[in-house]
Amino acid sequence: MRELLDKYSRKLVRAGLADEGxxxxxxxxxxxxxxxxDPACRELERLFDGLAINSLLFARPAEPYRSLIDYLAxxxxxxxxxxxxxxxxxxxxxxxxxxxDAGEMIAALKRRKSxxxxxxxxxxxxxxxxxxxxxxxxxxxxxxxxKFFHDYxxxxxxxxxxxEERRVFRHAVTLLAPLPEAPPRLMTGPFASxxxxxxxxxxxGRLTVEHGLVDSFFGNISYRLGETLYISQxxxxxxxxxxxxxxxxxxxxxxxAITASSEFVAHRELVLCTGMxxxxxxxxxxxxxxxxxxxxxxxxxxxxxxxxCPEERFIGPVPIVSGEVGTGRYGLCRTVPPAMxxxxxxxxxxxxxxxxxxxxxxDALARVLAVERLCRKEYLRRAAG
Length: 385
Description:
Blueprint: H1 2-14, E1 24-28, E2 32-34, H2 41-50, E3 55-59, H3 65-75, E4 79-80, H4 85-91, E5 94-95, H5 102-109, E6 114-117, E7 121-126, H6 130-158, H7 163-174, H8 194-210, E8 219-225, E9 228-232, E10 245-249, H9 264-274, E11 278-282, H10 285-291, E12 313-315, E13 318-321, H11 332-340, E14 345-348, E15 352-357, H12 362-384
Parallel strand pairs: 13-14
Antiparallel strand pairs: 1-2, 1-3, 3-7, 4-5, 6-7, 8-9, 8-11, 9-10, 11-15, 12-13, 14-15
Helix pairs in contact: 1-6, 2-5, 3-6, 3-7, 6-10, 9-11, 10-12
């Protein structure tokens, strides 16, 4: 347990989600252990008595997340409700506790896996491992980032920006991490063996995360070798894919896909319809924000943008489509592959970006960087306008 507490404390700092020394993680082994001593532990230990949990994470997020989260929390009662796909699907909302008080936090955490205490930080829990608390904390940071920047454009167009919102926006923009000047070089294909494919997928996931293009748990990766699609497992961390890659026959003759990414069918249809072998799906923040920004009014599909959109939308040469996880009428497996014909990148409303490469992941990763750079530039242009 001690190793896990230290591991996820370091991951929070490396990911830019918390400052050095800020994460406070507790886990139940034989006894309740903490990664470090802190006066806050006394109040937080009461949460283990009031919740059926195995681990707990509390930290003040690093900037710019801290300012964005505090701003949104002070406007929310009793919860923040982001509209990006991951939040809609998994979190639904982020409760706001009124004070750093065990009773207040327990009440909020009985509703969801994480909560915000304005001015103090974010608290999140897990029932099996500290990893679950890390995922929830990361999800809060991502969701609040997307919501704040999306709301800012909407409020600007509607003429309802407050001075405080403007101040937080200006502050956050100055603290945005710079994007890499160029993508890293990856293994070159075509790959001839299962071991090479697994190594290439793992490397692509790790470097996509390490270069700040996506967060650990926001995406999935696959590669076609012959008649088998190797794909990251559902819930796996993109920067730790070793041992979390499933071989799935394209003809459906195996049940291996049962533990594969929930977007396995979309990946399968992409390689089948394009002839390319590498698929990289992630949630770069400004790609998500810009995909959700639309000024068309009136619009009959306004409340169903994430499911269906009657308009053709593009950011530069990259199309934006709607789509849900799964195989339903509006599933990503039905909306993304047709849009990918003749292209190598497609954005999904509130759900990030799919990119492809022929024989390896070099082109796919380069396009993630190029599209996120384009979306950040376009966002700042719209915000200035």
